[in-house]
């Protein structure tokens, strides 16, 4: 009787985590539109705008609980926050913005969708994790999707010079590596810090990211143009605040909740929801239908998620 009751409990936990992952993906997919909405600005300026807004919002929200949070974190935890902010936000968004502006929304979103492969391989080494062999169908589908879009980016650029799509592809791969490090490290930190809420952890990362963005301002002022019109600055501020609240506050909060409910071998798969939503937003923005290779990639990354879920359900059913 007790064994019969335990199975639905695991199932409910898993599907709740997936729902959080879907919500995070829907909000994070909006990030891919931001560089298009503010194309006049450089990737570094976009990063500074978004993360200063994130830092300010985080500081306001965390102020009432600052003493409690600070008391619950060690020096090691603060060091973790610094590098998580760097690889998950600052460095990642510079690469992502550059990739979108040179390679397009669809290519960038699908390359970043390759993230589950790296995270799943790393997570399969955890104690009690689903064996890598059982996850192989999911990984193969994900690899197939990445190869489809990678081939299109190199062999069939849609517009611009031949070098631009390749540059965008390289920047997207850099963003992929950066966020893989964040996804794994963030899950590890949340697992060893049960006394810290996912909400406070996200706001603490926001504080660190805001400080890093402040340090980048002199670099941007010295090397990049600032002669934008008032309407451009207004649009830039609106997009920065909107992305900071929707993606960094709400989206990250949902992602952290999911990270505490799902094993690392499933956490990586959830980033594919960002890919799905970013593709939908991108096609609507560009007012076009997807190409054959994009359709194939879309189908493969979706199949990757479902085969991963199936692989994790087998032990519970057994």
Summary, kept brief:
The protein has 318 residues and is an all-alpha fold. 83% of the residues lie in helices and 0% in strands.
Please give the share of residues in helix: over 70%
Our count of helices gives 14
Please trace the helix and strand order, writing H or E for each element. Answer: HHHHHHHHHHHHHH
Structure classification: mainly alpha
Profile the largest sheet. Answer: none
Radius of gyration: 20 Å
Terminal Cα separation, in Å?
A: 15 Å
Which descriptor suits the 3D outline? globular
Uncertain parts: 1-10, 158-162
Tally of distinct domains: 1
User: Kindly state the mean pLDDT as a whole number?
Assistant: 82
Q: Approximately how much beta-strand content do the residues carry?
A: under 5%
By DSSP, the count of extended strands is 0
Describe the model.
This protein has 318 residues and is mainly α. It has one domain (11-317). The chain contains 14 helices and no strands. It has helices at residues 2-28, 34-37, 43-62, 66-71, 75-103, 105-112, 115-123, 132-155, 163-192, 198-223, 230-261, 264-270, 272-286, 292-317. The radius of gyration is 20 Å and the shape is globular. The protein starts with a helix and ends with a helix. The relative contact order is 0.21. The model is unreliable at 1-10 and 158-162 (pLDDT under 50).
